Amino acid sequence: VIERIKHAKVMRTMQFAEDAGPMAHPIRPEKVIEMNNFYTVTVYDKGAEVIRMMHTLLGTDGFRKGMDLYFQRHDGQAVTCDDFVAAMADANQRDMTLFKHWYSQSGTPVVTVRECRENKELQVTLQQSIPTHKDQGQVKTLLIPVKYELIDSTTGVSLERGVLQFDQSQQTFVFDAPESAILVLFEDFSAPVKVERSLSFETLAQIVKFASDPFARWDSMQSLWLMAVKEHGFQAQLVSLIESLIKDESLENDIKAELIAQPSFDAIAESYEVIDVEQILQGLEQVATAVSVAIPALLKETVNNLVNIDSAYRGELVAKRRLKQVLFSYIARLEDPAMRSLITETYNAANNMSEKMLCVDAARIHDESLLAELLQKMESEFKGNVLVLDKILASVAQVETSVVFELMEKWTHHQDFSFKNPNRFRALYGAFIMRNPHQFHDKNGQGYALLTKLLIELDKINPQVASRMVGPLLSFNRFDPLRKKLMQESLQTLQQQDLSKDLFEKVNAALNVQA
């Protein structure tokens, strides 16, 4: 369940961003300039989602029949995507012609949902919109599996579950449902699409409380966070819901942790046509701080119930550590002198790296001097362990104030840091550009300038890593005019260099997109 949520996060942030950028391509690209640039989240992650959709459409038994026929026909051969789909179709006597369009379509489809009630019927109309790309030819309709559940909003009882086969540009489905019924769509992230649907705060909160599918509950929480970020008036309601989720003893720890966790900047930004950096960062911080101020006793009590967690790698223990991490991210915001001692004592008592790192993360939020203290302690304790050094570097890179530039420079002089080692480089600078929007996207442009300088140097050493690191600059069209201009200037600076084919292809594609 938690892995499914993790996969959805990757799709909605990294893959959807790639689909919306200048390097958008189908999961089966027709042509490439540099093959290294197509080891992508589209080919791998979206490709995996397409196979998962076949499983959803055909069912477990039907998918197994298709796999058996596939191996019977092609074991030991070099085969194609078409061969795989043909085996699935033939084994189940199913026409999969329409489904195959997923392999040649680039961009993220958008599904718009409209609902109306007539007597005791709930009519739901779905409309699909597919992005048009100049290299793609005529836009085609896709076969989209839509897992759904009808739940009673008053009792929480599940009334009906199933899979809709959405295979027209516009299609209406009718349900026999009482007025109290709420329709949950795209359970289990059943298709890699964006969904445009207007639901009230109350309806989303009921899905969070009652839906059978944990992904659907988490998905609705993401929508509630988005509402609270955009509209200050929803923040108190979201804090109240988070409080009720923490108190809910029927929730398993892993699900509870994901439901109450603050979304990332990128997760919220994905829903913006033009990304409002300040609004997103301020809104996320306001809600997190409001949670810490509203329920400090509950947060501390829940943390106290998560002491002495065994260090073994078992699901229930991993879940406890994850919940503890999320809770610490809230209580670290308390202006309470006791917090410094709590974080330090928890670090010293920790018998595993997960708990030590949650303390480091909490220290970064609470007090930068405490962060420095814990990092020095960790570096001394695990001296020579480069995997721990990677964690230290990533933590340093996420300091949200401008001192981060000085700190990153300082840690590059560590004896085990090497600019030529891709793991060390990604640990430090990758964390900065991907997980520190406060400073990377600061309108002074210092973050973009640093990345540009790094890419010029890195491209001479490791073109593949440089090509992957340029990604955040490629989305300049989605930002406000000032940031857009700064990003374009960075790309233009790169374009003037003698670049590798890897980096040249992406920079050139981005600048050739009409602003």
* Overall mean confidence score, pLDDT: 94
How would you characterize the largest beta sheet? Answer: 4 strands, mixed
Listing every helix as H and every strand as E from the N terminus to the C terminus, the arrangement reads HHHEEEEEEEHHHHHHHHHHHHHHHHHHHH
Helix percent band: 55-70%
Please give the radius of gyration in angstroms.
Answer: 24 Å
Question: End-to-end distance, in Å?
Answer: 40 Å
Q: Which class of secondary structure composition applies to the elements?
A: alpha+beta
Describe this structure in words.
The chain has 515 residues and is α+β, with helices and mostly antiparallel strands. It is built from 23 helices and seven strands. The strands form two sheets. The protein has a four-stranded mixed sheet, with no helix packed on it. Strand 3 and strand 4 form a beta hairpin. Helix 5 packs across helix 9. It is globular, with a radius of gyration of 24 Å. The mean pLDDT is 94.
